[in-house]
Write a structure and sequence with these properties.
Length: about 100
């Protein structure tokens, strides 16, 4: 049985610059809402969303306007930029956000 989904079914992601050092990323879908606050140019430990494990994050804002988040398990060792996951978020000219995730190892 097929049913039309309403406007609330459309996922949205919002990036907000809270101040000179912090960026908020909010994700909203029909099933869940999640907000992460990232500190720029600072190594931060936190919970991985819905995975129940501790990870380290390093977030930077590039000169070309992209938000890059490096992430690895706590205690993984090595340089965070080369031993985990890299997520790049950029705003396209049409207003859509492009998100690229890739393993750095």
């Amino acid at each position: 049985m097929a049913r039309k989904m309403g406007a609330n079914a459309t996922p949205t992601v919002t990036m907000t610059r809270l101040d000179d050092r912090r960026i908020s990323i909010s994700s909203k879908t029909m099933m869940f809402n999640m907000e992460q606050v990232h500190e720029l140019d600072t190594l931060v430990q936190g919970d991985m969303a819905m995975a129940g494990k501790q990870v380290e994050y390093y977030t930077e804002w590039t000169d070309d306007g992209k938000l890059v988040v490096y992430q690895a398990d706590v205690g993984a060792g090595g340089d965070l930029k080369t031993t985990g996951m890299k997520t790049v978020r950029s705003l396209e000219p049409n207003g859509e956000m492009l998100v690229i995730k890739k393993r750095t190892t």
